[in-house]
Amino acid sequence: MKSFQNVLDYVIFTMGDYAFRVSMIVKISLIIIIAIILLWIIKRMLFRHSEVNEHQRGNIQAVFQMLRYLVWVITFGLVLETIGIKVTLLLAGSAALLVGIGLGLQQTFNDVISGIILLTERSIKINDVLEIDGNVVKIQSIGIRTSKGLNTDDISIIIPNSLITTSKVINWSHQNDKTRFRIDVGVAYGSDVDKVIRVLEESAFEHPDVYDRELTQGRLMGFGASSLDFQLLFFSKNTFGIGSIKSDIRRNIVKKFDENNIIIAFPQLDVHVNAINKTSKKT
């Protein structure tokens, strides 16, 4: 037992009055191991229900992310205390330095604060489909500084959290699992309005990703300069793949318009020339 204590008290290196001992390595290792085990237990407790849906899993993941950061911050502080560095004195003595670093890393801190807001407020969750600056992105993970998403081209995008909290963001998955979309089309004047509306609705009905037949609606929106302007409204649960769905429905519209002799309008300009008769008089 005494020999084991001697091993723990063995000095690896010294620096002035400071001595780094084997016992410090043991304590640091135990702190890190306890932190890892604690995180494993927390994760098992949070994810113990396998039947949760994607939105609930996203909320649980956000909570676990916050707890993980908290555990590692406490662990880091305990490690510093173990090797003899007083965290409170370190923060007080380096206040001026921290101010300088804060000014230099202002954007980074902004992203970190935004990440904390996202994780606590949970207005944005994993698997939510967002429209940010005109780009449609499906959120895969929310970190403390950045979030990772997948766009419609299956390309991973790293998004600074401050961009999500400070920009205008459309969350297509926030309240409902289905979203309403629209397709605009103009037809030539003289077309049968009721037939056009019926053909538009039938074009949407044929697509398997259109949610509800009763909620699908064709409308006459206005009288354009060269066309009767219609709008097709429909709901779909496949928000992320809506680009392909709209393309398929437009193909159906073109096909059915051809079958029903409905002409898609194009810009036209009628020019009327009035002939002016001039009678020349001989002098």
From TrEMBL:
Oxidoreductase as UniProt keyword: no
Family matches, as InterPro entries: LSM_dom_sf (IPR010920), MS_channel_1st (IPR049142), MS_channel_C (IPR049278), MscS-like_channel (IPR052702), MscS_beta-dom_sf (IPR023408), MscS_channel_2nd (IPR006685), MscS_channel_C_sf (IPR011066), MscS_channel_TM-2 (IPR011014)
Residue span(s) of domain Mechanosensitive ion channel transmembrane helices 2/3: 66-106
Keyword flag Transferase: no
Transmembrane segments: 20-42
Occurrences of domain Mechanosensitive ion channel MscS C-terminal (ranges): 182-264
Entry superkingdom: Bacteria
UniProt cross-references to SUPFAM superfamilies, sorted A to Z: Mechanosensitive channel protein MscS (YggB), C-terminal domain (SSF82689), Mechanosensitive channel protein MscS (YggB), transmembrane region (SSF82861), Sm-like ribonucleoproteins (SSF50182)
Pfam families xrefs: MS_channel_1st, MS_channel_2nd, MS_channel_3rd
Sequence ranges assigned to domain Mechanosensitive ion channel MscS in this UniProt record: 108-174
Bilayer topology: Multi-pass membrane protein
Subcellular location: Cell membrane
Family, as annotated: Belongs to the MscS (TC 1.A.23) family.
Protein name: Mechanosensitive ion channel
Organism annotation: Winogradskyella bathintestinalis
